[in-house]
Design brief:
By secondary structure, the chain is an alpha/beta fold. The chain contains nine helices and 15 strands.
Length: about 400
């Protein structure tokens, strides 16, 4: 009821981050578009690394130590610009989304050089810097900071008429407890005034482009608050994309938020964070219990895996209304069992989707699940998801 597009079905998308990180060209991105289109996806999202100019450009060398605060296209990487890239997505039948991190700034940026007093900092104390010893949080208590960010990003968005999605990231905590824009007797209100300023900025973007969906991201989970939910349609639940870890993470997240608000992506194997190897089927099963997406480069999949992925995406679209809009029933907690089990039930209680996700591949026990939540029927049709095909079993 609170999300801006809470009654809309959320698209199957591919986010470019784990598929390319900072190392991409225009062809890298259009190849990703071709891949997600082949799998049946509906949106392509360009993640970090697209911005900054000259010595402040964010690229394979500077990575995350420069450019934040300078919201202009890195024309060395993207000579044709973001509008062209969006048109490439549209030509493939895909919507286009973009990653931004407006609340943060790198000391190695034109913005910081011009306005060093726009960062959060305490008088007479050394400024604590985050990622790469270069990142800090901007003083969103300051209206001039908010106006600057709005003007910069509004110009970027104007070059993308078909912009459909924004991934709003925030990878630096408030580690400097001082706002230069606040009077001395107001410094203790930093947390409140910062959040108020953030919401004011989000409201301005939402008012101008109400059709654009927003993902709240902050190293995964850092912006997962109910206040932000007024401006965001989903959360990036964690930067830990290992599917076994995600079973636990998504179980916890679903205590507070609907499945449509949980961005759950199929990633590469071995996983980039844990090195764990998992079957593609398992990675799909976990990701399909929320808003399905991809966090990989499709070229790294075999032809058999691509065909399998295409079938699973089609299957997800069939069950998507039940998963994203249905009622959730918890059957077995992964904190009490070596598996998690739960089901989503349609509003009319005529259909249900059951998930049983093991945490240990050596489980040697019979798992009995008391299904509930849907209307009793004389005949119950159950579709069991096999390795590459569905089976249909009728039980009295």
């Amino acid at each position: 009821h609170l999300m801006p597009h809470g009654y809309d079905l959320h698209p199957v998308l591919l986010n470019s981050w784990e598929g390319s990180y900072f190392s991409f060209t225009e062809k890298t991105l259009t190849d990703m578009m071709d891949g997600v289109r082949e799998m049946g996806g509906e949106m392509f999202v360009l993640d970090d690394g697209w911005f900054g100019r000259g010595q402040y450009a964010r690229d394979e060398v500077n990575k995350d130590t420069s450019g934040l605060g300078d919201w202009v296209v890195n024309d060395r990487k993207l000579p044709h610009g973001l509008g062209w890239l969006s048109d490439q997505a549209k030509a493939r039948g895909l919507k286009f989304g973009l990653w931004v991190e407006p609340e943060m700034v790198n000391t190695n940026s034109a913005l910081c050089v011009a306005h060093p007093d726009w960062m959060l900092q305490e008088p007479k104390r050394r400024t604590v810097l985050g990622r790469g010893k270069s990142q800090n949080t901007l003083d969103l208590c300051n209206p001039a900071v908010r106006d600057n960010l709005f003007a910069q990003l509004d110009a970027v968005y104007a070059d993308i008429p078909d912009l459909a999605y924004v991934k709003w990231d925030a990878n630096n905590a408030i580690s400097n407890l001082g706002a230069p824009s606040l009077p001395r007797d107001r410094q203790a209100n930093l947390w409140f005034d910062y959040t108020k300023g953030l919401y004011e900025l989000l409201e301005r973007f939402q008012a101008k482009r109400p059709h654009v969906m927003t993902q709240a991201c902050a190293s995964g989970g850092g912006h997962m608050d109910f206040g932000f939910l007024r401006y965001a349609d989903e959360f990036w639940t964690s930067d830990r994309t290992d599917p076994v870890s995600r079973v636990m993470i998504q179980w916890g997240c679903s205590q507070f938020y609907p499945a449509s608000a949980m961005a759950c992506h199929v990633t590469a194997s071995p996983n980039h964070q844990t090195g764990r190897k998992t079957p593609l089927k398992y990675r799909f099963d976990v990701a399909m219990s929320g808003r399905l997406g991809f966090e990989l480069h499709p070229k790294d999949l075999t032809s058999e895996e691509l065909a399998y992925a295409k079938g699973r995406v089609a299957e997800y679209k069939r069950i998507r209304p039940i998963v994203q809009c249905g009622d959730l029933y918890r059957l077995a907690s992964p904190y009490e069992h070596p598996y998690a089990a739960f089901l989503y039930v349609s509003e009319d209680k005529a259909k249900a989707v059951v998930f049983a996700l093991g945490l240990d591949r050596e489980i040697d026990e019979t798992v009995r699940l008391p299904l509930s939540g849907f209307k009793p029927a004389e005949t119950l049709e159950i579709r069991l998801r096999g390795k590459y095909a569905s089976e249909v079993v009728e039980l009295p």
